[in-house]
Write a structure and sequence with these properties.
517 residues; alpha/beta; Rossmann fold; GMP Synthetase, Chain A, domain 3; three-stranded mixed beta sheet; 19 helices; 22% strand
Length: 517
């Protein structure tokens, strides 16, 4: 079965149209069985060939030979950044299979725990999975193997894992027998507009990849400078952070494709787990319906849930478990991760159950067809929804960790603060970084002028702190200071989002409720 799982994964990476067929016909049960076998095999490899993971198991009293069944596998301890990656940051060779860094042809970087950089060696097989995901989007949904296509990569480049993987993927599929030309202007809007202005008219379609806030700025700047996006047959591949359906509709209107379910698509992934899942026309329609139907939304994601992404994923590629509402991944690569908890708040829904929930709310086959879903093309894969992270928020592709904020409270000008929370707020389809501040007991801030002056002072210190410790934030701030400058809201002790916190043993520093701004 392990060999069959490898065969299935290689098949899905070999050809996008073959992979599309495979995922439309592989049954839910078979995919899960293959995924379990793959996960067990990865545990066997990591427990014998990765020094850091062997030590981790020993610290938890687990011997590799004691894991004989999938039930044993599900009882394994869960590594995360704080207990596994960060302690081994200075011994990178201990995190990779075989212990030799020179076996791996490239290394990227991401801002890790507390905003400190983590380095990620990568294998060729990992790159293949990214290429397969990107090729699936551009070929299966936009026919880029048949239509001359300009593919423009606008993620941050350099050492950044996401941007470099996108650039590598774009160039790799362009090398195949596809009429695709890849360009990589990165996150420089002027460079991207120059590419569009001088090259897009030479192709039948232009596909642009980037962070959602960047893509919005790009279209708005382009319009102001006379670019007619609707004449260029533009589609967008968005990634790096979640985005709302309101944002998608706004962008579809700008490119003139309000009724095209494949004109703006994206995926869900992370530096640790790489690409986990992809949007589909069905996921887009289901998310839209959930926005309009509170009962459906509640049955899909739970009460008071704000869905940041809804994708379908293959258990054969990444095996996903949900433990106490958090996503736990088992995925291969140079740094294999077995039951790794990235503390993403998430949930999974099997294909049959997902379709049943839709039907129970009146969204059966006829309604889905009316919404534009081709029922003959839907994947049988399970669904994954993301509700954000319990230790960070993401704005403009930058992960902003609670741990990176805390030290700011001890700097001059920050007197009077009892507690704080990170939050995000959508303003005109664009995310804004928010920091909510609770004043110490007995300090009043009733006067608007006092609140405003405190907010300004606190915001400046928080901004300096984030620029100092978080490379991702620094890069995003240069490109989009309006969204990344912290908007600070001051509350008196125990008020607003801080109501009830006094009774908590462990404070929660990420707030996901609605804000009255």
């Amino acid at each position: 079965m392990g060999a069959l799982a490898d065969f299935a994964q290689n098949l899905m990476q070999s050809n996008p149209r073959r992979a599309d067929w495979f995922q439309r016909h592989l049954s839910e049960g078979t995919a899960d069985r293959l995924g379990r076998r793959k996960a067990m095999g990865l545990f066997g490899e990591a427990s014998t060939k990765v020094a850091a993971y062997r030590r981790f198991l020993e610290e938890h009293g687990v011997g590799p030979s004691t894991v004989r069944s999938f039930e044993d596998f599900q009882a394994l301890p869960m590594p995360d950044k704080s207990n596994y990656l960060v302690p081994n940051r200075e011994r990178l060779e201990d995190l990779v299979i075989g212990g030799k860094i020179t076996d791996y042809y490239t290394i990227g970087r991401s801002s890790g725990y507390s905003g400190e950089p983590l380095f990620w060696p990568r294998t060729i097989q990992q790159e293949k999975s990214i290429v397969a995901g990107l090729e699936m989007l551009v070929v299966t949904f936009r026919n880029a193997d048949r239509i001359p296509t300009l593919l423009v990569v606008c993620f941050d480049l350099g050492m950044w894992v996401g941007g470099e993987m996108a650039a590598h993927g774009a160039r790799t599929i362009a090398k195949k027998r596809h009429p695709i030309t890849a360009t990589t202007p990165g996150s420089d809007i002027d460079e991207t507009l120059a590419v569009v202005r001088n090259l897009s008219h030479l192709y039948e379609q232009t596909m642009i990849m980037g962070y959602p806030p960047y893509l919005r700025q790009l279209l708005e700047r382009g319009e102001a400078e006379g670019i007619r996006w609707k004449d260029l047959n533009v589609s967008l591949l968005a990634g790096g952070e979640g985005y709302s359906e309101e944002w998608r509709l706004h962008m579809l209107q700008r490119i003139g494709k309000e009724h095209d379910l494949t004109a703006i698509m994206g995926g869900f992934g992370s530096s640790e787990g790489m690409l986990v899942g992809l949007e589909q026309p069905l996921t887009i329609v289901a998310r839209r319906l959930g926005n309009q139907d509170e009962s459906l939304r509640r049955d899909l994601y739970g009460p008071d849930a704000n869905c940041y992404a809804l994708v379908q994923y293959s258990p054969v590629g990444t095996y996903v478990e949900i433990i106490d509402g958090e996503m736990v991944l088992t995925s291969g690569g140079a740094v294999p991760l077995v039951r790794y908890n990235g503390h993403d708040l998430a949930g999974t829904i099997g294909f049959e159950r997902f379709m049943s929930i839709l039907a129970d709310h009146g969204y059966g086959p006829d309604r889905l067809r009316k919404e534009g879903v081709d029922l003959d093309r839907i994947w049988k894969n399970p669904f994954l929804y993301s509700l954000g992270r319990n230790d960070s928020v993401s704005v403009d592709g930058a992960n902003i960790y609670a741990e990176g904020i805390g030290p700011a409270l001890f700097k001059p000008g920050m007197e009077g603060i009892s507690n704080w929370k990170l939050a995000i707020h959508e303003v005109e389809d664009q995310l804004q970084l928010m920091i909510l501040v609770e004043l110490q007991r007995g300090i009043a801030a009733d006067e608007a002028e006092d609140r405003h002056s405190r907010s300004q002072r606190y915001s400046e210190v928080f901004l300096d702190q984030l620029n100092a410790v978080n490379p991702d934030f620094r890069s995003a701030y240069r490109n989009n200071p309006d969204s990344l400058t912290p908007h600070v809201i001051v509350y008196e002790y125990g008020q607003g989002p801080f109501s009830g916190d006094e009774a908590r043993i462990k404070q929660q520093h990420v707030y996901r409720g609605s804000l009255d701004v």
